[in-house]
Amino acid sequence: MPNKKYDASEKLVIIGEIESGEIGVKAAAKKYGISKTTLVKWRRRYKVYGYEGLEKQNHNRSYSAGLKLQAVDYIEGGLSQYQIIDKYKIASRTQLSNWIKEYNRHSSLKAYSGGAKAMTKGRSTT
């Protein structure tokens, strides 16, 4: 059976039940057939971004090289990765982890420039 996709308003109802104390995270996960991790992620996104954070993303977010370097400051600053993604509104912990790996390899953290460009030219018409 495929996983049910929840829209933003349904996610908000579920989060509301948890926040009001009506139901716990574990019970909500069981009731709605969602993992606890997913529920925690929804709550975090709602706290950081509001209702917008619960809506489906149709595009990649763009981050400047400067923001990426600032986000990596958790290494010296003692902040957790979750505190950093909340502070800088980064989409996921995985994204931050990738930046940290690049930083530790002494690679430059470049700004996102969009999707890949097609390498082929269109056919010429006669």
Automatic annotation (TrEMBL):
Superkingdom of origin organism: Bacteria
Pfam families, A to Z: HTH_28
GO molecular function (one): sequence-specific DNA binding
Insertion element IS150 protein InsJ-like helix-turn-helix domain location: 10-58
Similarity field: Belongs to the IS150/IS1296 orfA family.
UniProt name for this protein: Helix-turn-helix domain-containing protein
Lineage start: Bacteria, Bacillati, Bacillota, Bacilli, Bacillales
